[in-house]
Amino acid sequence: MVKEDLFAARAELPDLAHVEQLRRLLHEHAHRYYVLDEPSIPDAEYDRLFQELQAIELQHPELLTPDSPTQRVGGKVLDQFASVRHAVPMLSIRTETDTQASGARNFDARVRRELGLDESAPVLEYVAEPKFDGLAINLRYRRGVLVQAATRGDGEVGEDVTQNIRTIGQIPLRLPAAAPAVLEVRGEVYMRRDDFETLNQKQRERDQKTFVNPRNAAAGAVRQLDPAIAAQRPLSFFAYGLGEVTPADAGGPEFDTHWDLLQTLKSWGFPVSSLVTKAQGATELIAYHESIARLRDGLGFDIDGVVYKVNSLALQRRLGFVTREPRWAVAHKFPAQEQLTTVLAIDVQVGRTGKLTPVAKLAPVFVGGVTVTNATLHNEDEARRKDVRVGDTVIVRRAGDVIPEVVSVVLPAPSEPSRRGPIFTMPRQCPVCGSTAVREEGEVDYRCSGGLFCSAQRKQAILHFAQRRAVEVEGLGEKLVDQLVDGDVIRVLPDLYRLGITSLASLDRMADKSAQNLVDALQKSKQTTLPRFLFGLGIRHVGEATAKELARHFGRLDAIMDASVEQLLQVADIGPIVAQSVRTFFDQTHNREVVEQLRACGVSWPEGAAAPVTPKPLSGKTFVITGTLPTMSRDEAKDLIEAAGGKVAGSVSKKTTFVVAGSEAGSKLDKARELGVAVLDEAGLKELLNGGS
Ligand code: 9MJ
User: Fold this and answer.
1) Which of 378, 499, 505, 683 could potentially form a cystine with 515 if both were Cys, beta carbons 3.0 to 4.6 Å apart?
2) How far apart are the first and last CA of the chain?
3) CA angle at residue 193 from 655 to 140, to 5 degrees?
4) 112-333 maps to which CATH number?
5) Cα separation of 412 and 420, whole Å?
6) What DSSP string runs through 557-606?
7) How does pLDDT run across 227-267, given as a tens digit for each residue?
């Protein structure tokens, strides 16, 4: 059908029905691609239809319409934005700053009180939505065509940003015939985290200013006067409400509930988050707040809380407004993940492998649920790129369990006196042992060359060996190790097992009982397993998974110590860098001595035979997990894949075997489709894990 029509379009006078059909097809496929994430034609086919329409419009400009898919890009560079008075004011919602469950309970109690409901009245129904951290936008459609997009501004008057908003593929330019004659849809324009990272990467490559966070990047793109630049800034959209609505005839859609309204918006082509749900009473609001908080760090975009709305529109009308805030909605925040604080000093810490890390010492600040006093600056290049100096006010970020980091410096106004310290430079000597710090060609890190001569490295090596995931010496913490190493009680790892109660009890703040406990813990740690022991040795690049793989493959420690690089390369998932690192480690006489002395002290583990090579169902397969899976967390999926021998990577490439996609999957899924990588849902993954193929 399409083929014949395309032919007709090349005739002298374009067939209007054909032009219209091209536009309809392009709208439909853009919706499938950008909103549903389910393209049904290859990108090349879409491009072909698009170019065909473009060619016709170029020859016959009189046929151009503002809702043509070709008009997403191509507006003029503006001097300033025109003002737009909102037909219906854009409200802000009251923020509940109490981030505990009581925040939800208080809202429900308030609404019930306002409605005069006593305790015997049934629970109220709400709609619970994520609170997207972007920019509120009003989209105005007249007779189904997008005619204007405006920012919220002060709620009464905003700015006309139509040209820029048109470039957002997820926003429909035209609506089905069922839509009212005048329809205003409200929602949040935001930038996905992966799009934000890619954009900042590009900015860095072009030596241009990077953005502090996705929200700022989105705001900058929406308020960009040159729409061609805006078009290069990848934005997304979620709809969550209405502004002015005038039905085409008396019949237009009448909504009874906020939920129905959202479902209708979805059916008209607007993206509505799949995380939006109905909730009965305060109990379910609290459960929603908690469940979204858990999902927060794994989502593809930033949210800063959730929003609760009374579902019944009749009740919403009864509740009305106080000043400009509706009584029927509230934003229930999560603890902030970013805060401002001051840099008191920049220290350099020495890691187990000698890596020198600049760390900003901060005035204590409560962020991401804990008090933070240190934030990593990663390495010298990063510290200089961000130009963090003593005395600076900085934004610190702590998301989930990730170590806190300095996002950026907030520079004082030029008129304010500046008390900034000097530019950071990495010391050329190890700050702990004074050995030369070396930065190898092509590496970003400086390393202390002191090895185990360096007490900082020795301390870290002991803590690494004693940690729970290695041989586990309960009660051997940082303070104790500091004392043992600084007091020269321990010089090498095996000295740990030579500690007696008397030498321990003589340490600061060490009671006889604690000394006995530690001796017992040391005794207990001697019975270990080969993977734990190997991991505990702290061989560079040998993490827990690699240690397990080595133990499984060789069975005995001596076989590993004597294995050649070629033999090591036979082990599943071990590449040349890891193989060389294992070989180099056991080539050092002092490392072999440490192993022998530990064995002589009684550290032991059951040894086995080399495992016959039995390939696991997913070995050799690489997975990328994206979006929210219906029943398992991404970490659970990752554990299951790895247990079955598969690998999990962070980004999609030609080497990816499968992309496992859940809801809200975004650009990784696009990339998979672009590269022709197979896509699975959770059910498909489970099937594979159960031995299907
Ligand atoms: C955000 N920011 O995600 C509203 N919002 O509803 C959601 N904002 C809102 N709803 C009425 N999910 C006014 C603002």
Assistant:
1) 505
2) 37
3) 120
4) 3.30.470.30
5) 10
6) HHHHHH--HHHHHTSTT--HHHHHHHHHHHHSHHHHHHHHHHHHTT-B--
7) 888 888 999 999 999 999 987 554 556 889 999 999 999 99
Q: Residue 449's closest CA among 427, 470, 465, 464? A: 427
CATH class of domain segment(s) 338-410: mainly beta
SS3 160: strand
- Other beta carbons within 10 angstroms of residue 596's beta carbon come to 11
Pick the residue whose CA is nearest to atom 5 on ligand 1: 131
Instruction: Please identify every residue annotated as catalytic.
Output: 131
Distance CA 276, CA 127 (A): 7
As a whole number of angstroms, the distance between CA 162 and CA 144 comes to 15
Q: How far, in Å, is the centroid of ligand 1 from the Cα of 132?
A: 8
Tell me, which fold does domain 3-72 have in CATH?
Helix Hairpins (1.10.287)
Distance 187 CA to ligand 1 centre (A): 7
- What's the CA-to-centroid distance between 409 and ligand 1, angstroms? 30
Amino acid at position 597, single letter: Q
Dmax over CA atoms of the chain, in Å, equals: 102
At 424-480, the pLDDT tens digits run: 999 999 999 999 999 988 888 999 988 878 999 999 999 999 999 999 999 999 999
**Number of the ligand 1 atom closest to the C-alpha atom of 309:** 6
The arithmetic mean of pLDDT across residues 668-675, rounded, is 87
Q: Would you state the structure tokens that stand for residue 379, as one six-digit string?
A: 């390495």
d(CA 306, CA 296) in angstroms, rounded, equals 10
Q: Report the alpha-carbon distance of residue 365 to residue 341 in Å, rounded.
A: 7
What predicted TM-score, i.e. pTM, was given to this entire model? Answer: 0.66
How many CA atoms does the CB half-sphere of 577 hold within 13 Å? 3
Residues with CB under 6 A from ligand 1: 91, 93, 129, 131-132, 188, 240-241, 307, 329
**Spans of all domains in the chain:** 3-72, 112-333, 338-410, 484-614, 622-689
Kindly report the CATH class assigned to 622-689.
Answer: alpha beta
User: Which residue(s) pair with 140 in the sheet?
Assistant: 148, 184
Q: What is the CATH number of domain 484-614?
A: 1.10.150.20
If residue 236 lies in a helix (H) or strand (E), which one and from where to where? strand 236-246
